[in-house]
Design brief:
The complex is a heterodimer. Chain A contains no helices and 11 strands. By secondary structure, chain A is mainly beta. Chain A starts with a strand and ends with a strand. By secondary structure, chain B is mainly β. The chains are: A mainly beta, B mainly beta.
C-alpha cells in the first residue's frame, strides 16, 4: 500500500499568517495516463470531509484562492497564504492513483 | 447537484451484522466511475473500506475482506454495504463518496459494542 505521510501533525497559526502542510508518498503518484491523483481534503469540526484541491494544484469551485497546492511525484504541499478563522479543522492529503486508496494521517490546523 | 445520504448505522454487538445504504440523487449511481465507502473511527483519520465500479467490479480493504460486501441497487439508485462479523474496531462513521472525491455523504455512525 502507498503510505502517505503528512507533516506537521498539529499546526498552530496566527490569524492572517501563512501556513504550509507537507505530504509525502511512499511511491510515485503519477498514473499511467500521466495525471497525478493527489487530492487535499478539509474537514471542519463536526463536518464531513470536503475536497479543496484535486490533481495536485486544481482548486475546487468555491475554494478561496488563498489555498494552493503544488508538488510532483512523491512530494506535495498545501499552502494557505493568510489563515482565516474558518480554516480551522483537519487537512488530509489522499492518493487515488494506486489501490487501495490511502490518506495521510491528517494535520490539525488551529488558531494560535 | 449530487447528493449522498447514508443510513442504516446503529449499535450492534460484536459478531453481529448491519447493512448500510447510501441514497444517491442528482446522478445515476451506475454511471459514476466508482463509488467508495470510507470510514472514520472516533477522533481518528480516514480509512478507505470498499469500492464498486460502474461495471460492477469491487475491491475491499484487507481489514474488511471476507466480512463486508458492497453492492448497488440500480432501480433505487443506492449503494449498499453489508457488514457481517462486526468487531469493535469497525466502530466508525461510514461515508459514501463518489470517484471524484468531491461528493461526500454526511455519514452514518456504526458502533460495535456489547
Amino acid at each position: 500500500d502507498v503510505v502517505m505521510t503528512q507533516s506537521p501533525v498539529s499546526l498552530p497559526v496566527t490569524l492572517g499568517q501563512p501556513a504550509s502542510i507537507s505530504c509525502r508518498s511512499s511511491q510515485s503518484l503519477v498514473y499511467s495516463d500521466g495525471n497525478t491523483y493527489l487530492n487535499w481534503l478539509q474537514q471542519r469540526p463536526g463536518q464531513s470531509p470536503r475536497r479543496l484541491i484535486y490533481e495536485i494544484s486544481n482548486r475546487d469551485s468555491g475554494v478561496p484562492d488563498r489555498f494552493s497546492g503544488s508538488g510532483s511525484g512523491t512530494d506535495f504541499t498545501l499552502k494557505i497564504s493568510r489563515v482565516e478563522a474558518e480554516d480551522v479543522g483537519v487537512y488530509y492529503c489522499m492518493q487515488a492513483t494506486h489501490w487501495p486508496i490511502t490518506f495521510g494521517q491528517g494535520t490539525r490546523l488551529e488558531i494560535k | 447537484e449530487v447528493e449522498l445520504v447514508e443510513s442504516g448505522g446503529g449499535l450492534v454487538q460484536p459478531g453481529g451484522s448491519l447493512r448500510l445504504s447510501c441514497a444517491v440523487s442528482g446522478i445515476t449511481v451506475s454511471s459514476i466511475n466508482y463509488v467508495s465507502w470510507v470510514r472514520q473511527a472516533p477522533g481518528k483519520g480516514l480509512e478507505w473500506v470498499s469500492v464498486i465500479y460502474s461495471g460492477g467490479g469491487t475491491k475491499y480493504a484487507d481489514s474488511v475482506k471476507g466480512r463486508f460486501t458492497i453492492s448497488r441497487d440500480n432501480p433505487k439508485n443506492t449503494l449498499n454495504l453489508q457488514m457481517n462479523s462486526l468487531r469493535a474496531e469497525d466502530t466508525a462513521v461510514y461515508h459514501c463518496v463518489t470517484s471524484a472525491w468531491n461528493d461526500w455523504g454526511q455519514g452514518t455512525l456504526v458502533t460495535v459494542s456489547s
